[in-house]
C-alpha cells in the first residue's frame, strides 16, 4: 500500500560538477538552495538585487545585470530617512545615498562577471502579484514598507508573465555559457496574506506561464519544487512554526531530490565531505588548548587541504 504521492525530478543529461558556477535568483527558496550549494563549497551567487518575487521584477534585475547598469542617485528615492531603490530588496536601503549605490553597483558588477561563467541558473518565482509605485508610475520589486496609498496592487497579465520569462531566457542565453541550463521553479511558500484562493491563483498563473514560455526552448526546464512540497510533503510537520515556510527537513529532502537528478556522483561525494567538515568545524570545546582538540583540528585542516586539491576556487 502507498500512503503518499512521491514526486520525482527528471534526471538531467547535463550534470553539475564540482567546478561549475550556479546562479540563483528569486524568492527566499532560491536562497535556501544557494545556502546548500555554498555549504557544499560549490561556486554559487544568489539574489544580487536581494529577495524578489515576481517575474517582471526578476527580469528587470537580469536586464540590469546584463547591461551592467550603474545606478545613479536619481534612481533612488528618499523615504523614511533612507535612500531606497524600488528595484531592490530593503537590505540595500541606507541613510546615505553613496552607500546604497556602492552596494547596488558592486553587486551588479559581481553578478555580471559571475553570469559569464555560469552553467546553471535557478529562477524561483514566488507570486504573480506586482505593485505599481503611483508617484512614478513604476512597477516595483519591493514596497519597502512605504504607505499603502502610494501603491496599486494587481496581477501581472499572462502576456506580461510570459513576456518577462522569455526576455529573461534571452538575456541569460546571451550572457552565460553557450549551453547554460535555465531551471524554473515556483516557490512552495504560500503567500497567505494575499488570501488562500488568491495565492492559489497566483501560483497557477506562474506555472502556466513557465510551461508556455519554455515549450520547445533548448536547455530550459521546470523543476517541480512546488509540487514536491504540496503533494509529496503534504503534512504540516514539514513546515516551520508559521505553517508557511518549509522546515529544514523539507529543504533537505528537496535538496537530495535535486542532487539525485542534477549532480555527478563526484559532486555528491565532494558536497557530502564538505558538509561533514562544516559539522566538525562547528564542534565546540571548553579547552581549545587541549592536545587532543588540536589534533582534531589538524585532521580537519588536512581534510580541507585534500578537498581544496580537487578544485581551483577557494573553499572554506
Automatic annotation (TrEMBL):
Residue runs in coiled coils: none
Recorded superkingdom: Bacteria
Listed InterPro entries: GSCFA, SGNH_hydro_sf
Pfam family, one: GSCFA
Gene Ontology molecular functions: hydrolase activity, acting on ester bonds
Domain GSCFA residues, every copy: 22-258
Protein name listed in UniProt: GSCFA domain-containing protein
Originating species: Epilithonimonas hispanica
